[in-house]
Prior knowledge:
Blueprint: E1 2-8, H1 12-23, E2 28-32, H2 40-43, E3 48-49, H3 60-70, H4 77-85, H5 87-97, E4 111-112, E5 122-123, H6 129-143, E6 147-150, E7 152-160, E8 163-171, E9 176-187, H7 209-216, E10 221-222, E11 227-234, H8 244-247, E12 251-254, H9 267-279, E13 284-287, H10 293-299, H11 301-311, E14 320-329, E15 332-334, E16 346-348, E17 353-354, H12 366-388, H13 396-411, H14 418-432, H15 439-455, H16 470-494, H17 512-515, E18 518-525, E19 528-534, H18 536-539, H19 541-551
Parallel strand pairs: 1-2, 1-9, 2-6, 9-16, 15-17
Antiparallel strand pairs: 3-5, 4-5, 7-8, 8-9, 10-15, 10-18, 11-14, 12-13, 13-14, 18-19
Amino acid sequence: MLYDVIVVGSGISGLYAALYARRAGLNVALISKSNSLRSNSAVASGGINAVLKTTRHDSCRDHIADTIKGADKLARLSAVSAMVTGAEEIIRELQEMGVAFDTDEEGNVAQRPFGGTKAKRTCYIADKTGASITQTLLVKCRKEGVKILPNYVMLSIATYKEQLSGITLLRRRDSQVIALACKSLILAGGGFAGIYRGHSTNSQESSGDLIAIALRAKMRLSNMEFVQFHPTTLLNSGTLISEAARGEGAYIVDENGERFTDELQTRDKLSRDIVKHQLAGHTVYLDFRHLGEALIDKKLPSARKHALMGAGIDILTELLPITPSAHYTMGGIWVRDNTSTDIPNVFACGECAHSGVHGANRLGGNSLLEAAYFGRIAGIEASRVAKKGDFHPINYALVDKEARYVEAILEGESRFNINTMRRNLGNNLYKNAGVFRTHDTLANALEYVHYLMKMTSGLCCVNKERNDNVELMSIIEFRNALTVAESMVMSALAREESRGVHYRDDFPQSDDQNFEVNTIIRRLAATFLRITFEGHLSSDWWHRIRQFFHAQ
């Protein structure tokens, strides 16, 4: 099949990108490896940040300042400013599409406080904001003619003479490898916090597939060491209890009922406070009891349901045990302000991309805004170049290579248990590359990742059925997860300082002289990664020179 634009990923960024590319009059396909409503966007519950005309005691200047401060000096001002000043239009546009934000007594969009902010600027729909926006965008894409292809797993980017020609995919229903041709491609497949299996708010499908594919295609990655841990998740399952709970006034207490931290400080600092308190022998809880049933049922219904279903706790009368879990990844595919990447006509947006707005630590409420804002830009830019571009031939030797890769996994002899290996990777990363890190723990994590990489040749399907083989997809995801884990741990080893969510016990201070720049990862050979530290302008100098002479 031939498509003008292919979008991979069905969260808010992917849906927004597909919608805008379709509105440009192009033939657009949206690829999803499972149900669209299982994306991280769909389970993001707290809200979306915006300074509105009706917002009191706030300004775009304050929103920009809060974002940059939270990012610990690594945010890109141009990207942050563009996103923040475009936020009100995003909210208005979502309302026009049918998103029913909660309103206040005056009928204006209601806003709640989130950590690290100076004002109430987070717009919300109870505590199911992401799901509501995702459902609305999905319906809109279907109505406007976007071709939605669920249950396809992307395997690689196909190029011809260094130009994009298409992608290869695994069709899950029959385990066949196919190729789709396109003029432009948008990568919007989410982050990789799911590699911390057993210690993550993400599903196991959040394995960083597109980030691994981009690295294999010689695209740059940036700031992979910055993994944000959400401070309030269920103790035994990692189920997210939204920051909306603290925004509405829930307390963080220990077994003595003592409030030992500031509930509305940034997530990195709050997670460290909680882990330190746990290491000192305390149990940490969320306390909703003073909020009352009326407020909880109106503004925090999902929190009450998750607590009851996941922990057997009624938050009206009981304390809820919590712990930090891996939640969001700030690093990803290196992109410019217009979402373009190192390969012409390939764009990236959402959590799989390093847009520069989150730096070393994301503020709650900024991720849904980033997804919508940069998803729209990606759709506009991808459609613009697709209108000017041509289709390029697909090298079917690549398709054959991917087919043989899948065949080897299906037909080979299985020597290891994939679920055990995924859990072991998650446990090791949480222990050695978690909220607190040192050279020794990170070295142990890297050694274990390399050990698992050597074992993957023995990871094959026990079930040889080709129809909807879940085991096959799990093995492919796990191999991608190891590629991403290696990049993340190596970046963390190279950054010998503490900044944002990256906290090194052996380097507890920030080192602005050497490290107030981004980590850049390049793949130079099959098994060799090169890590450098570069400012955004120095990473983009050759592209800017080419653009200048082209304009002349």
